[in-house]
Each structure stands twice: as structure tokens, then as C-alpha cells.
# Entry
Amino acid sequence: MADYQSADSGVEDENVHLFLFIHGLWGNPSHMLTIEKAVKRSFAPISPEKVVTIKPSSFRFWKTYDGIQRCAENTIADLFYEIETLKLKNRCHVTKISIVGYSLGGLISRYVIGCLYELGFFEEVTPVFFSTFATPHVGVHFFKDAIFDKVANGMGKRLFGKTGFQLFLADSENLLLEMTNHDSCYVKGLRLFQKRIILANIKNDRTVPFYTSFITEYSPFDKLSSINVQYFQETPPAKVNNVTVWPKFVDLRRSVRITGGETRHRNIQEATSILRSNVLIRYTLLLFAALVLFPFYLPLIVCLSFYVSGYSILKVKLISGPDIVEHWASVRLSVYHGGSVDTEHAEKGYSRRKERKNLSRHESFKGDTSKMTENVMENMLAAEEHFANDSADVVKDESNEIDTQSRSGSDYITKNGESLPFDAPSLEESSGELDRPTSGKINEKKKSFTSKNYKDKNSIEIPIPDYDRAIRCHTKLLNWNHAEKVPLFDDEVRLPFSKLQQSIVKNLNGLDWIKIPIYHDLFNAHDSIVARRGDMRNPKGTCTVFFWASILRNHISEEISSVNSMTN
# Structure
């Protein structure tokens, strides 16, 4: 973020496409940095409007316990402040909006959309993209008939404040069900978006399982060793931090269950960490965690989470949230109907910009403790899965030679392919939210991505034009047909849903979605699906996120071509 001065009143306002990135439970804005980078480096150069991004910080860390409603209200307040600040200080006029949510942030996003619809926000601003990464749309529930699952279901709803009751479908309002009713503002708002995209981990996401992020009643990947996972064909490789990787979009139509006496498939990928590939090291670390770390940290974390949970519930009852109705009335008049922007609002928005900038560089005690809580919870789930339920997935590697096809899932061979490298410093060094303007008819050949920048150990090479072509070739796979029979989705892997869960799935699947299964053979796929530890530290996640961004690019390119053909 730069220091912005008040703009010259004689300069005409520039139209803005605003991207709102919303993090998840225990999270903070830095978790969305790689997605933000993909949008700014891939999508922004072809956008007819200036692309501006905002990653709200008003509900970070432990504040995510405050419930979906309160987190959404705080997000909307941040959004309105930013719109006013853009108008007053940058002479920018927000005309389009896209919303991207990660984990719990996807549910918060849907609540935000419902509130914005009720306020009449979409009468002034055009909704374009809505996307979620690893979001528990159907809530959270552990289905195995084991002591751990029963304890987790009982304690889980009480561990995370009001948010916990909502996630475990135990709140009196049945909020997640209400947010799927066809006549609700939430669904009406969702319908207005031009593209609705969800990405779901098929495995190694112990926080948000496949069924709830993919919005389905099937869970076919519990025993992954018995499935031959296939990926989108002819996807080009990328190079991230000197590691060659392929996008990990799973092709559900070609993925099959291995039956009979066939050798179990390990679904090995390129650039697999030693923690994942070496069984001895993995189980040694898990055993150490179970015997040494958990006896001390787990009781501490559970007690801390219970304390924060009670405090959060009490705080939400006693302290009201921001008045978004009055705030929108002010924004609508000043920004969209010729009034004067409230300078106090603009200054508050500007101060929040600086707060987000500082937060991206400096952690706090609350951030450290919430991060520790998340790590302990994740490791506890991993230990339970490996020791109690998933031993069948540990298969001895029978060959040292693994062909590229089995590792990457791609038979792509570069033939004069256009690789577009750009030097990419650490995301923490690139914290600006206001992207450079673009306008008029788009000529991609003039954009900076065609220049050959120098390569160093921190370079990222993304073949963006080839990604665009690959996405166009797989349009049929992206446009999900719920009536189509998927080989892996059979009665054997159907989950025993409650009526409430069945209703949520049925209602949400009444909308058109682009549904993308993702497989990362990493210890923590929930982390990697957005590469939240940084683009350089997670090559597979970064590559996959940029491939997702090509879906957005193609949509806008089609719109631009359509407009240009009409004007010619």
C-alpha cells in the first residue's frame, strides 16, 4: 500500500473492479496474498477497469470466533470505507466487485453478498466473480463411528465461539440452511454473479473435507490408495522457485477406483516433500507430537480456545456491530449520486489501509496464539487420521522410477510454448493494494507479461497464454452438471447426511457452479490450496492458483471480444 494524497478534483474518476479477499478461521489478510498476486499479475493486465484489491483485517485471529454475521458486518464496513477512500483520495469509482473467500471466509462471503443484496448495493455495483477455496459450505461433521469423531462433534461446536455452533450446524437460527433458501437474499445475491467457482481439496484437508467444500453427499477419496487420480490433460508446467510443477485440477470423470488384485496407486506427484514421501520420518514426527507435544500443548490450546469462545459469545451479545445500513446510505449518496464523501469515513478507511499494511509485516500476540491453536488442531487431526484410520494409504513404493505423467497428471510437452517469467519478490515485500490502471481496448501483446524479465532464484515462470488455452479446452470439465453420473460417486461412499445437510446440498446445487477438485500430496492441503505460507514456499499451490486465475481471464477476454466486435 502506498501513501495516497488527495486527488485533483479536476481529474475524471476512473472505474474500478474491486476484488474483496476474505480469510478464514484464525486467519489474517496475509493468507490471501498469493491469490491477490495471481489476480494482480494475471487478471489485472487485461481488465478494462483498474483492479483494486482489499483484504479486510477487522475480524482477524480470535475475532473469527464472533460468528459469521459479525465477521460479515465488519467486512462490509471495511468495504464501504475503502470505496469512500478510493473516491476521495484516488478519484476511483467502484463499478464492479468480485469476492473470494477462503475456508470460513467463503461462508462469510456468502453472508456479505446477502447483506449487500438487501442494501441495494448491486444496483450500483456489478457483481462479477464469486469464488471459494476449501470452504465448509455444508458445515463441519465427523462421520466415522469412533470415539474421536464423537468427541470432536460434541466439543467442536463449543470451542470456536458462535462460529463453532454455526459450523457444526448447532445454532438455533440454522444459519447455513437459511443462507441456501431460494427466496433468501443470500441466494438472490449469489445468482447475480457472472461466475461462481469453488475449489475443494480431495484429500489431506482435515479441517474442511471434500464433501463440504465440493457441496456433495459423497466422500470417495477417504481411501485414496485405491483410486487412480487423473488430472486435466495437456496442462502446461510452471516454474516456481526453481521447481517445475503442474496445476492439480482433478478430472473426476477419468479418475477411477482400482478393484480386484490391481496394485494400489500412490498418486505420486512431483516436488513431494520428504515429510510426505518418507514414511519413517512422517511417523516419527507424528509419534513425537503425540507423545511429547500434545500432552502439554493440547490441554493448553483447548483451555485457551474455550476461554476465547466464552469471551467472544459474551462480547457479541453486549457490543453491537457496525451500522452498515446507515453507512451504505452515506456511501450511496456520496459516491454514486453526486454527494460529498464523509471525510471522517475516508480518513478511517485510509487508517485501515495502513493497519492492513502493518499487519502484513508484523505479527501480534493474538496472531501468534491463534496460529498456534490452528497448528495444534491440524496436527491433532492428522495424528488421529494416520494412526487410527488411514493406515491403508501407506503403500510401499515398488519403483524408483516414476514417470512424469503419474507425478504431474499431465502429458503436456512444451513445443515453442510462450512462457512468461516475471521476477517475483516475496509477497510480504509487495503489499500494495491499488493496481495500475488499464482502460480501452485490450491488446495483450503490449502488456508487461510479454517482456522477458531477468530470472533469479526467486523467479516465477507462469505460461499464462498456455494456461488460458488449457482452460478453454476444458470448458466441459469446468461446467459441472449435477445430473451427470460420476464413476467415483456411488452408494458405497455416500455419507449418512441429516435432513438439514441434505437440504443445504440440494439448495446450493440448484445454482450453476464451476466445481474444481484439487489434489496436493502435501501434509496440509488446507494450507496449500491458497499457498498461504507464501508463493515461493508452496510451488504447487501457487501454480494451481494461477491456473484458477486463467478462468477469470478467459471470461473477461470473452467479454472484451464481444464488446469489440459490436463496436467494429
